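Entry 14. Ran structure prediction on the chain below.
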Amino acid sequence: MREVLEVMPIGDLSVPVIGKNATIAVLVQTHILIATLILGASLIAPTAEYLGMITKQPRYERFARSLARFIVILFASGSALAITFVLALVTLFPIFFSYLQNIFFWVFLVEAFLFLGVIIVLYAWYNVWDKLAYRKSLHVVFGFVAGGIGLIQMTMINVIASYMLTPSEAPVTDVARTYLNPTFVPLNMHRFVGNLSYAGFLIAGWGAWRYLRSTSEEDREYYDWMGHFGLLWGFGFLLLQPIIGYGYLKAIRESSPEAFNTIMLGDKSWLFILLMIELAIMGIASVAYFLHKLRYAVRPMENLRKLSVGAFALMALFSILNVIPADASIVPQIGLVFGGGEDVQIPLGSMYPWKYIGLIGLTLVGLFVLALYLRATASGFEWGRTSRWSQYALMVSAVVVVLTMVTMGYTRETARRVDNDPGYLIYGCITLQQEFTPETCPAGESLLQNVEGSR
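Output, structure tokens:
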């Protein structure tokens, strides 16, 4: 056995062709895309059921029940991916995982019980739908409890994710400071808002797809309404992301400056431009949809349409401002460099003040358009009458929001690499080679002592 260990040290396993880093990345990203949809949908569905209860509109009930069925089906695949990811992490990064399980044993323990709890409540909520038809308030509470447990689950995972990027300057035995590490709160806010926006855009895209394929008038009206309802969630919560994202980046800059420089000033700064392009596509497509939908308001609102046209132009202007690069070295990794590269500065591409103006402008204009659209919504629309291109706009937004999730996940995880000089699994503490670096670790020797003391 000793000879085997000398030939193949613990934690030195690899995956053929793609490597172990890519394996973990694929598993995690796929799981996040599914889990985020489940969590966002598990909050939207009971809200829709509640709205159906108080408005007596059957479409809310139909939507909530269909979404609940989808959540139950999707939950199984999401759980399987989570288990596969943990097994892969234990196998490919055993030394790193040993650090994690010792630092966050209490988190893993709570997460296990929450996982059991959400299974029980979620499946009970769906299975007793008919039995509690005459006790609707109680059934709605069941749904919100399931969503609430999912939110607590998310916070447990965010403890680990945030600590890996911004570990606290305190011994790992200090549970409170480990939990409330510098980016824990902004990451939770970012993911909570992002979950609802992500699920909303996907619901809108699915509604658009079904609308284009529907033949009956009843289904066309229902799926037209679904696209509208989903986009209200998607676009409405998207408008909060620039504000929350600024707070999140500020926390990273203060706690892990080298990681911040990697994604904002280093070779990976093109990721911010990519994110702004994706944000621009979703914003412009959403406002275009709202503008088109105003034509089918039950009560004509020509003034609102004219205001929305002006807002659409401003949305496009601020979006262009956000995607202008800071210099001619756009994506050096693939050779997308013009002229003198980094030496050629583009004045309108600087973060201050132009990117701030662009982000603030997008948020304010978006809120203005959303307020106009909600005002028109109060009087109602002629459902089932809409153009094909407006439905294509919803489907494009649904595709782009998935790409946005991948971009944001890659951006956060690549920040710890610090241009691979060295790359970290836990920023400043454990390298990609699973080596502990106490001289740069904010938690100091306590991290190593905690692991050794548990053996």
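The CA atoms of residues 69 and 126 lie 7 Å apart. Will compare against last week's run tomorrow.
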